[in-house]
Each structure stands twice: as structure tokens, then as C-alpha cells.
Amino acid sequence: MSHRVPMILGRGHKLYMSASRQEVVHGREHFGRRLSALHSVLRKVASGLVRCIIAYAAGFQAIRNQYSAERLSKCQIVRLSRMLLYCRENISYYRVSLKDIRIKQIRSPEDMVRIPVLPKETIMRTPFRFLSYRMPACTVYYTSGTTGRPMICFRSQASKTFEDAVAIRRKWNEGIPLHWSRVAKISIGNHHLKSPMSDVVLHKRHIGLRQGVSCVQAFVVSEAEAVFDFRPTILCGTPSALRYFAFECRKRSIKIRPTLVWTHSEMLDSISKEIIAEEFEVPVHEDYGLFEFGVVASSCRFGYGMHINADNFLVEVIDASGKQTYERPGRIVVTALHNFAMPLIRYETGDIGVLSLEECECGSVLPRLKQIQGRAAMSIKTKTTTITPSVLLEHFALTEGPRLFMSLVEQFQFVFQEGKVIVRYVGKKVGVTEAEQIMQAVQDLLETKIQVYFERFDSVDAILNQSSYKHSQVLDQTS
User: Fold this and answer.
1) Contact call for residues 120 and 152 (beta carbons, < 8 A)
2) Would 124 be classed as within a structural domain?
């Protein structure tokens, strides 16, 4: 017997429909919803494939660019001119700062001195003055806030495409197959599972296509067994996380043998590099990148400095007068050539580096950052000079006592305060002889008598920057 159910047609009117007919209607509605969801998925897949094709095309173009100085120079000048014209027409801040600049006369990094340097504080005061009137599709990021308050950044789809292209070139140069790789991202805390825009937890594992087909999974340092089971071809993470992970694997007698180890986000000192390379028995490579831009420079297989992605960025190392300098330390200033959402022209990164003119054995004509010496804000000022974190750590690495200390402890940090230095570390207790040698090395470097105190911790979390989970091996807390 068929039941009759009322269906409202309008005011005061009802139509009685059988239950079987009602099931058919509901079935059609359900099928329609399923079809709509499938259509949405197919659109996303098609869109993703199109972006993959564009990224791979840009990637192979980037591979060609690195072997021709003429092609690279022409590409950089064209993209720089286009970006400067775009900024003057569409960005409120640059309408004023580029008003009297003759863009056609800017043909090289040396000509960029005509444009004023852009400090981070200027952007943080009025960030929306740097947004385009013709805002393209973009992604929003926040900087890590290592040196203070985080800064909001907008990066366009074009910027992301060329970042993927750079990653493809990097894999190509290192002989890593693009068709498949397993990437393990190592981190000390669970912050890598958080979205930069919210507290929504992201998936720990995903498949990447746009930078070469890869299975990417995130791990914390304590998950050494899980990393072993994952059998990664690439290990990546901050130097502090990978150093701590190397000690963790050594303690548990876990042998992980990736093809490559890649570090990012922090300065890589020579001792940490040796520890990581010895434990995983592979070369250790380094990226220099910022949230504002992505990967700016990467080391090659010869490991002498880092090649600047000059087809995506214009990187200058400037002296106190604002002019380009080579083979000497200076402030790193970066201009993005593809970010049309929030263009940054001559942005002062706050880092100290050395730009080299020497040719690399790998055959690439991409310019090289010979060395990243650390944050300018973390440099130690003495009576006669300023000592960058890199110079300080290299001085200790060449001194017997401090070198032994830096090699045996799981993590360390030198904190410079008024009239004293505090050495924080995680690991075995420092012996009397080692402590005296470290004190002598500090006094020799600073050219003054100063007290050195030691603080031992059980966990590396105690000496990390909790807001960004980055680690600074040298901290200047003097007034």
C-alpha cells in the first residue's frame, strides 16, 4: 500500500505525492549533489594540472637560464623594468618613491642605488600602501617574527609559480628525479602543522606535484622510528632541528640514509653541518629564503656558497653608503621580480652577507652569495669592531675547547649580556678544562676580560624562540 505525503505548493494548496515518488525525488537531489561535488573536484584537479604544466615549463626555462649569462641578464632586466613600471602605476607607496626615477636607465644592480632602500619598519607601519590596486590572486603569509613583531605578506600566484620553477631547477641540478621522491620535514615542535592564517591543523602528509612528484610528510624530532619507516629520499628542516634529530638517531641507533639533506630558515654553522653530514652520510645543502619572498638562493653540489635565483630576484649586498659591494660583508637587499600582489623593491632583509664574483665549478652563471653571516641585529659590538654570528662561531670552531663543546652537545646558545656571557646548552655537563678554554676564546674574541657562565638544560625547547621555533646560536641582549 502506497502512503501519500503532502507537499506544499503555495499558500493554502497541497499536492499529495506517493512515498515511492518522494524517494525518486530525494534520489535525484542526492545524485545532483554528488554530481556537483564531483564537478568541483574535477575543476580543482584540472586547475592543479594546468598550474603543474606552467610550473614545469617555467622550471625548464629556469634550467636553461642558469647556463647563459646573456640570457639571464636580459631576462632579469626585462622583468625588473616591468616590475618597476607596474609599481609606479599600481602601488601607492611607489607612486611617490619612484616618481622621479627614470626606469629605462636602470639596467644593472649598480643602478639600483637611485631607489631608496625599504626598511621592514616602513611596511609594518602601513602595510596596505604596498598592495596593488589591481590585486591578483594571492596567498597570505606571516613572517616568523624572530626579530620582533610578525609582518603580513601577500604573494601572487606568479610568485608561487616561479618558486616551484626554482625548486624544479634545484632538484634537476642535484640529480634528484622529478618523477618521485619522499620528503620528510623534520621539526622540533608541532608548529609545522599549523596554518599561518589560523589554528586549523593541516594534514601531516600530502602529495606534491608542482615541484616534482613527491610524498611529503611532517615529523617531529622524537619520531625517529616513524621517519625510518617512511624511508625518505630527502630530509629537510632547520639546522637546529636536523642537528637535534641527528643526535636522537645516534642515541637510538637508527640508521636513516636519505639521498640529500636540505636546511632552511636558519644560519648553518660548520660544526652542525659536519654533525648532520656524518650522521646521515650525505651532503648537506642550504637554502636562503624568507617568508616575504620564498627561496632566494640555494647551495649547489660543490657546496661553496649559494646560487642566487637571479631570474626571480635581484639581490644586492650594500655597504653603509647604499652601494653594491663584493667580497666584503654588507647588508642584504632583495627585489622580487614576480610578486605583483605586494611588490617589495630594495627590501632590507636584516641579514649580513658576502656577494662573490668568482665562477662556480658547477658551470652555473647564477650569481653567488658566498656567505650568510647572520642577522645584523644579533651582531656583537666591541670597542673596535662588530662581530657577526657567523664570524663568532667560525672563531670558536677553530679553537680546540669550544669546538669540542660545540661538537658534543645537542644544542647550544651564546647569550651576550652587559659584562657577561651566558652559555646555554643541552647535553652532558661541561668539564672544567673545556669551560676555561671557552672563556679564554670569548675573551680573546672580545678583546676584554669578561665573565662566562654556563646553564645546562634537559630539553632544547628551553632555548628555542617559542613564537617561531627558530633557534639563534648567538643572542645579543646588551643594551
Assistant:
1) no
2) yes
According to DSSP, residue 459 is labeled -
pLDDT tens for each residue of 75-101: 899 999 999 999 999 999 999 889 888
> What residues contact residue 177 under an 8 Å CB cut-off, 6+ apart?
171, 212
DSSP H or E segment with residue 17: strand 13-18
CA distance 292 to 155: 8
Query: CA–CA separation, 7 vs 16, rounded Å?
Result: 6
The residues with which 205 forms a beta bridge, in sequence order, are: 217
Residue 467 belongs to some domain of the structure: yes
Q: The pTM is what?
A: 0.81
The residue from 304, 319, 339 where one domain ends is 304
Nearest to 268 by CA among 434, 55, 472: 472
Number of structural domains the chain divides into: 2
Helices (H), 196-308: 224-230, 239-252, 270-280
Model confidence band, residue 27 (pLDDT cutoffs 50, 70, 90): low
The CATH number of residue 136's host domain is 3.40.50.12780
Mark whether 161 and 288 lie in a shared domain: yes
Q: How far apart, in whole angstroms, are the C-alpha atoms of residue 260 and residue 303?
A: 13
Residue whose C-alpha is closest to residue 79's, from 324, 390, 284, 339: 339
d(CA 293, CA 93): 19
Domain stops at, among 304, 335, 354: 304
Distance between CA atoms of 210 and 56, rounded to whole angstroms?
7
Could you list the residue range(s) of the whole structural domain that residue 130 is in?
63-304
